[in-house]
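Ex. 9. Protein: L-gulonolactone oxidase.
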Amino acid sequence: LRLLQRGHIPSAVNAAQSLHVDKERKQVTVEAGILLSDLNAQLSSHGLALPILGAVSDVSAAGVIGTGTHNTGIKHGIMATQVVALTLLTASGEILECSKTVNPDLHQAACVHLGCLGIVLTVTFQCVPQFCLQETTFPSTLHEVLDNLESHLKKSEYFRFLWFPHSENVSVIYQNHTNKAPSSSASWLWDYAVGYYLLEFLLWISTFLPFLVPWINRFFFWLLFTGKTENVNLSYKIFNYECRFKQHVQDWAIPIEKTKEALLQLKEILQSSPKVVAHFPVEVRFARGDDILLSPCFQRDSCYINIIMYRPYGKDVPRLDYWLAYEGLMKKLGGRPHWAKAHTCTRRDFEKMYPGFQKFCSIREELDPGGMFLNAYLEKVFY
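Predicted structure tokens for L-gulonolactone oxidase:
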């Protein structure tokens, strides 16, 4: 560990966890393989934090930026917007540094790199002073939230909501800075016995009786989401949550002004197709626009709409009709898929979605002309 403040204080750490902290600039340089769970704890010991995180932290620094990982908050971009600089080992063996002032075109591409530009060696993140968040959850309706979306976005720095398909039910989640002492509303009975074990059993039953899914969605909203709850903790402990279920997901970013249209049309699709069932929740989040070439938020503030189908006890659930209807709607509204989640898009789609796609391709071809860093997925993206 090196602390850059009035000199250097070296000490040994694991190879994939080397850390340089510049307290004056509030920046941290890490080896790209460090897990965010380790980084969060180490930053906390220096009184620092990342301003935003995804839902899980058992992922590497290079991975979260390379796939465009995001959370929510219209004042905040995706995680890659926190990248001040990075170093890259190219196919030729050359090590390149990039930032907004050094190799700026490469920086614009490499912040969401898809793993195809080279091997990311180090990443420098912009941090903020350590902070606590108060998370407040309360019930509402889909129409209320959509009709008052601007108000909700202003009331909460990190605002998101969960819609329960086949109903009007919504759980609103506000997260804001606070000086309150840590507190928790967690309960093993409600969070695990009911919210996990009972839910998984009922979802498994619904694989034989799909008509139960709308009832399950409404029943669990009534059981778990009709009251107001509050939790306070360090930011990374609020941002992160436990993903208990095996699941299939899609997550697309659409222009923020299309939020209401998208959700009402998705609701109409489900209402007009009784045989198509959708598990709860549809998670709706927001992110500020940026200038990263392959960011789903490139040049526009965005709304992310994440759909989910659980796999109770590992059993696959029919989802094709739901998946295709959702993806068709997202494409119609100018959406761009999350790079780390399911989609059926090809190069032809990405050329239409991303104004900077050709520029990214040119940079990739220059750095890796032989395709050393391509795989079957990336070949579908670029060819």
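Check your answer against this statement. Confidence is low (pLDDT under 50) at residues 1-16.
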